[in-house]
Amino acid sequence: MASNHNAYAYLSARYGLEFVTVHGLDPEGEPTAEDIAEVVAAINEDNITVIFIEEYTDADAVQSIVEQTGVTPLTLYTMELPPMNSDDTYASLMQSNLMNLKTGLGCQ
Asked: Rounded to whole angstroms, how far apart are CA atoms 36 and 14?
């Protein structure tokens, strides 16, 4: 699996998943060209089809990876900040997370 930064170590430990990450632990950091090249190579080598991003991640931040690999960005809501849409609730965002995880893991 691929994500914009290493926020999902608990999923790796619990479910034996492997994540390729762009930013390491720091979501605010600026990836180097080498970081991006490594992620692109891993995505292509492992035939990864999605990249998970957080709700406040600018899609442009992963656009070059999307263009080079064809991965689909899927959002995982962390609830670190208030929802962007006032109609969203904790339950609706967690339902969205479930659906995106099922899609990303091919569990449909």
From this structure: 27
Domain that holds residue 48: 2-105
Which pTM was predicted?
A: 0.78
Chain Cα centroid distance, residue 39: 12
Q: What is the pLDDT of residues 84-98, one digit of tens each?
A: 888 999 999 999 999
Closest C-alpha among 78, 30, 39 to residue 55: 78
Q: Provide the number of structural domains found in the chain.
A: 1
* 95: CATH: 3.40.50.1980
Distance CA 54, CA 84 (A): 12
